[in-house]
Amino acid sequence: MDLQTIFQNPGAVPVSLPVRSHPEWRGRRLAEILQEPDGPAFLEYLANGGQAPFALKLAAALLVAQERGWLAAPASKPKPAAKPKSVQDGSLPFAKAWALARAFTGKRYSLPILEQILVRGGSDGTRYLTATNLEVRIDIRTSGDATGKAFILACKQDCLSSPTDIVPDPDDNRYAISKDSDGRVYRVAVMPNVSSVEFAMLGNQPCGRMVLGSVEAASLSEALKTVGPVAANDNYQEVLQHVLVRIRNGAIILVAADGYRLIASSPIPVEGWEGMEEDLLVHRDSVAPIVKALEALGGKPRLAIIRSVVQTWDKKSQHIQYIQFQWPHARVTVRLFTDRPFPQYENLIAPALRAHIGDLDWGQVMSLIRSARPKKGYDAKVRFRVESGTVTLAALRATDNGPVITEPVKVGQAHVEGEGNIWFNPALFVDLGATVEMRGTEDWEQGLGPTAFISTKYTFVLMPMAVEQR
User: Fold this and answer.
1) Which end of the chain is more exposed for a tag (fewer CB within 10 A), N or C?
2) Distances from the Cα of 224 to the Cα of 255, 279, 388, 422, angstroms
3) How far apart are the C-alpha atoms of 423 and 447, rounded to whole Å?
4) Are 264 and 345 in contact (CB under 8 A)?
5) What confidence score (pLDDT) does residue 190 get?
6) How far apart are CA 73 and CA 144, in angstroms?
7) Which of 276, 212, 211, 206 has the alpha carbon at shortest distance from 22?
8) Cα–Cα distance measured from residue 26 to residue 13, given in angstroms and rounded to the nearest whole number
9) Which helix (H) or strand (E) covers residue 34, if one does?
10) CB neighbours of 343 closer than 8 A, spacing ≥ 6?
11) How far apart are CA 273 and CA 302, in angstroms?
């Protein structure tokens, strides 16, 4: 390609070499790649001396300069004034995209850049928002007003609540101008000298990607909201601080445990599954932003495993894995825990399935459980009693006047002979659905073995409490 063509239209130059992180980019034009979430970082890599033909590096350098406002855009025929873009392509409005990006920032971290949302604006009104806390990252495309000039800025996540757009202050590059839905205009400070390359480094650019298939966002979100809180929240059980995402036989199973309880979801189908089997560990703190993205973006995102090799401070290679949720207008990338495998949870569930104790009305159970949960400074226990073909539930509360046990309430029908009491900590229960099957060990009457509560969506195993019988 001759120099005149490159200078007149650098975006038309095709990528003539394979891109390790994105093999599908080969043969595509630079202008198209620039619109991808990872595109600006790739162009800056080429412009800063990356290995590539001279024509490709020159075109990349020209595009980067235009995006930064260092060069005027190539002369073209006069165009009518652009109107603000409307959100008709399925992407989120700017205010909703901003609110979603805020969930991915590091609000309690010492690195100032982790509190920022990176905004890349196109001259046509396209906006790309990026936020990360090093464990989770989101790249989301939205739209604002057409400004006729591209820009990059980073703004602190809590400086704006629901902006409809944000653009650089034309008079002072230390500030940006934003407005809300009521037309109010704000002038906010921006972080100086921040580029998309810095945010790309925070996300550890991938060098390999394997697509697993697509999953329904609503089903996965519901399961994560139920399973995630069961993961351990102390530092002494590092592997149990994570949610297991097990992919087998074309479905996802979510599992979490904390030493006192364990929960496993029913299989969630994965469309387009190609036979890959994976056990992935997601930290419990990453669950909340993932759920927000699934609820906000909906649909059926594609799942992909990303593998990277990064160099540590002592020049050793470190292998890092991510799981990525991909929508047409957004990507959520989550760092995975790979130090140790999750325990064989099937061995923990099996002993609790041997005796069918009874069937419970779980809505009634949870209503009583919530009322029995201890207030600050008091202890509480709940008792399931099996007797005469029924299952009843009562609560034992410690009060200023001594222990008080409530009147037993029938919550289900027993399917075993004999009688016995099983005591639990009410703070450990989770909502499982409408009807739940209660199962236990063969010697369930002693009230010492694990007890399973099984619904159509979850299997929940809970260890009982030892209570002195009087």
Assistant:
1) C
2) 9, 16, 38, 28
3) 7
4) yes
5) 86
6) 20
7) 206
8) 11
9) helix 30-34
10) 239, 240, 257
11) 10
Q: What is the DSSP string of 212-266?
A: EEE--HHHHHHHHHHHGGGS--STT-GGGGEEEEEEETTEEEEEEE-SSEEEEEP
- Concatenating the DSSP letter of every residue in 150-201 gives -EEEEEETTS-SSEEEEEE-TT-TTEEEEEETT--EEEEEB-TT--HHHHHH
- The Cα angle at residue 187 between residues 181 and 189, in degrees rounded to 5: 125
- Sign of torsion over alpha carbons 4, 9, 10, 15: negative
How far apart CA 176 and CA 188 sit, in angstroms, is 5
Residue 55 DSSP SS3: helix
pLDDT average, residue stretch 313-323: 77
Question: Which pLDDT does position 323 carry in this prediction?
Answer: 92
Instruction: Dig out the tokens for 168 from the structure.
Output: 């650089």
If we measure between CA atoms, which residue out of 349, 301, 363 comes closest to residue 327? 301
Tokens of 217: 């966002």
- Distances 455 to 76, 413, 434, 446 between C-alpha atoms, Å: 64, 15, 8, 24
Please list, in sequence order, all residues whose beta carbon lies within 8 angstroms of the beta carbon of residue 232, skipping any fewer than 6 positions away: 240, 241, 257, 258, 259, 284
Mean pLDDT of 438-446: 90
Phi, psi of 294 (to 5 degrees): -60, -40
Residue 76: which pLDDT band, with cuts at 50, 70 and 90? Answer: very low
Residue 109: HSE in the Cβ half-sphere, 13 Å Cα cutoff: 16
Q: Whose CA is closest to 361, among 391, 394, 381?
A: 391
- The kind and range of the H/E element at 4 are helix 3-8
Angle at 299 between CA 179 and CA 283, to 5 degrees: 85
Residues in the chain: 470
Query: What is d(CA 112, CA 326) in angstroms, rounded to the nearest whole number?
Result: 27
Q: 3-class DSSP state for residue 269?
A: strand
Measuring CA to CA, which residue among 138, 145, 186, 194 is closest to residue 162?
A: 186
User: What pLDDT, on a 0 to 100 scale, did the predictor assign at position 82?
Assistant: 41
Does residue 401 sit in helix, strand or coil? Answer: coil
377, pLDDT greater than 60: no
The DSSP output letter for 63 is: H
In this prediction, residues 386-396 reach a mean pLDDT of 92
- Antiparallel, parallel or unpaired: β 126-132 and 116-121: antiparallel
Residue whose tokens read 């200078």: 7
Which helix (H) or strand (E) segment is 348 a member of? helix 345-349
Whether the per-residue pLDDT at 282 is higher than 70: the answer is: yes
Share of the chain above pLDDT 90, in %: 38
